[in-house]
């Protein structure tokens, strides 16, 4: 007896895209993860921000008060200057007096000389205080100045619209000179005279209503004055009018003086 051939299997139908079985339970959509937002640096640490603002406000206040104080000081200085109208004193070399000036045959210099300087206070409301200082005397020569010695100055006070004097006593002994320099000094002393320069370094301050202010160092450089013979052997004195001295403050020339 012949067998029947097996029946062919039915082909499985493919589900279309997006097909959903109506009997299947509903599927919840997956939750999306929220990424952290990027905050600006000013909002990341609110506590530190407040601390930094506090420091900045303190610095601004300090700077403001410093500017106000500087402005007030400037205004006070300007008003004081307009009221007192301070002016520098003037210096003039009045005289030179050589009590001893000898040049030996061995070209050795022995000298004792004094210089008198007149100073004038042109201020009407300010007194000037002169501290201790030093005077320096040199003789001019074409090969270089010849040292005549230094002298100490004592301090003094100069009232308003008044004049005072300072005397420099200087001397040198046993200074060896070059032959040509010694001969020129002999000829000059016996003839037209030796040109002597005087420089004074002293501290000056002001006195207002009995109170002394701080002193500043100044230098007065006087123009050369000729030293001539006055009849006394071995000695001599200056002749002619007073010569003006240039005042220097902190190595700068002061031109606004009387």
TrEMBL record:
<keyword id="KW-0812">Transmembrane</keyword>
<feature type="compositionally biased region" description="Low complexity">
    <location>
        <begin position="30"/>
        <end position="44"/>
    </location>
</feature>
<feature type="transmembrane region" description="Helical">
    <location>
        <begin position="58"/>
        <end position="84"/>
    </location>
</feature>
<keyword id="KW-0472">Membrane</keyword>
<dbReference type="GO" id="GO:0098542">
    <property type="term" value="P:defense response to other organism"/>
</dbReference>
<dbReference type="GO" id="GO:0005886">
    <property type="term" value="C:plasma membrane"/>
</dbReference>
<feature type="region of interest" description="Disordered">
    <location>
        <begin position="1"/>
        <end position="49"/>
    </location>
</feature>
<keyword id="KW-1133">Transmembrane helix</keyword>
<protein>
    <submittedName>
        <fullName>Protein YLS9</fullName>
    </submittedName>
</protein>
<dbReference type="InterPro" id="IPR044839">
    <property type="entry name" value="NDR1-like"/>
</dbReference>
């Amino acid at each position: 007896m012949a067998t029947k051939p097996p029946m062919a299997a039915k082909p499985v139908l493919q589900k279309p895209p997006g097909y959903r079985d109506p009997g299947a339970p509903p599927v919840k959509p997956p939750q999306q993860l929220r990424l952290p937002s990027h905050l600006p640096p000013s909002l990341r640490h609110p506590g530190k921000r407040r601390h930094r603002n506090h420091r900045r406000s303190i610095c601004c206040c300090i700077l403001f008060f410093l500017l106000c104080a500087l402005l007030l000081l400037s205004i006070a200085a300007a008003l004081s200057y307009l009221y007192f109208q301070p002016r520098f004193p003037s210096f003039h070399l009045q005289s030179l007096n050589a009590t001893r000036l000898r040049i030996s045959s061995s070209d050795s210099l022995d000298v004792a000389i004094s210089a008198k300087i007149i100073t004038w206070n042109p201020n009407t409301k300010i007194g000037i205080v002169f501290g201790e200082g030093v005077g320096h005397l040199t003789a001019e020569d074409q090969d270089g100045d010849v040292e005549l010695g230094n002298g100490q100055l004592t301090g003094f006070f100069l009232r308003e619209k008044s004049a005072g004097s300072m005397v420099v006593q200087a001397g040198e002994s046993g200074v060896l000179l070059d032959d040509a320099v010694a001969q020129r000094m002999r000829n000059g002393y016996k003839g037209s005279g030796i040109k002597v320069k005087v420089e004074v370094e002293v501290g000056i301050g002001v006195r207002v209503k009995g109170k002394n202010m701080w002193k500043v160092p100044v230098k007065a450089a006087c123009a050369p004055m000729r030293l001539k013979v006055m009849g006394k052997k071995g000695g001599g004195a200056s002749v002619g009018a007073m010569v003006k001295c240039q005042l220097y403050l902190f190595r700068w020339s002061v031109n606004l003086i009387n």
